[in-house]
Amino acid sequence: MMMRRPNGFAAPDWYTKPFNQDYMRIYAYKDRTAEDETDGILRYLGFPKSADRSPRPSPRILDLACGWGRHSVELARRGYRVTGLDLSSAMIEEAARRAKDANLSIDWISMDMIDMTFNSEFDAVINIFTSFGYYVNESQNVEVVNKVFAALVPGGKFLLDLDNPEYFVRRAQHTDRFRVRNGPSTESVLKEEFLTWKRERRVTYSFLDRDNRKDDLVLRCYLYDFDDIKGLIESSTAFQLHDVAWGDFEGSEHPLPKLSDDLSRLIVLATKPRTK
Q: Residue 82's domain is classified under what CATH number?
């Protein structure tokens, strides 16, 4: 399945710019949700909350677009064998620092996900917090799904966490002001959130204490509904998408094929068939 992006969706390399130290400061509050989200990730994958109790080697998990390692570190703390991959060197450096401070062994890779070449190495691949669909050319997003499929062992699982378009369409646009830590001081940030139409969500963060507008962070995501992502995944690979989609990490299910406009996430699970 190949979908057309709206004209002017984004510059092809837009995603190489905003994921830096400022982004980590803005989203620092997400550290508080990592443990509960990891509970949900493992529940959806069908894995135990802790791998330490299993007599067999623990599952191998690829945290694709791992950011600063919120879930990678938590998974490793629970005994899973984890590889974290992210394009942002700043994110990987912070993730490695956190793992070292926690005395955890995690493999970190700084790489664009489209360039990965894993072959049957992981029991699960997770992609959390709207880190898929960044490529303007949809064929590249399809290629990533194919790379994920190749990275999994037979029977391996792919958990994909996206924005729910129905939720954000209903909320459309708003502006907010808040403060973030910047070393010993704080900075004022203005968040302007726009939805140009159902296919794109755009969020702009402007630092009001700075004169340089080049410091603004502009985040974009292409909004897939359930049929979109099902078609993309199943038409390009032999993945089998499960007939359930969750709207959060607490077990709330969407009434498929419709998506609830009260749930902010669209979380889907696909399995690579076992060889006969």
A: 3.40.50.150
Q: What is the pLDDT of residues 232-273, one digit of tens each?
A: 999 999 999 999 999 999 999 999 989 999 999 999 999 999
| pTM, entire model | 0.96
Q: 171, 168, 218: which is closest to 192 by C-alpha?
A: 218
Please give the residue range of the domain that contains residue 148.
Answer: 14-163+224-271
Spatial separation of the C-alpha atoms in residues 249 and 161, rounded to whole Å: 10
**Residue 8 domain-assigned (yes or no):** no
First to last CA, the chain: 27
Question: What pLDDT digit, counting tens, does each position of 135-165 carry?
Answer: 999 999 999 999 999 999 999 999 999 999 9
Asked if residue 126 and residue 28 are part of one domain, the reply reads yes
Domain presence at residue 7: no
CA dist 81 and 57 (Å) reads 9
267 class by beta-carbon count within 10 Å (0-12 exposed, 13-18 middle, 19+ buried): buried
Asked if residue 57 has a cis previous peptide bond (ω within 30° of 0), the answer is no
Do residues 151 and 174 share a domain?
Answer: no
* pLDDT for position 9: 64
Give the three-class secondary structure for 220.
Answer: strand
Across 65-173, the runs of DSSP E, i.e. the strands, are 81-86, 107-110, 122-127, 152-163
Whether residues 133 and 36 share a domain: the answer is yes
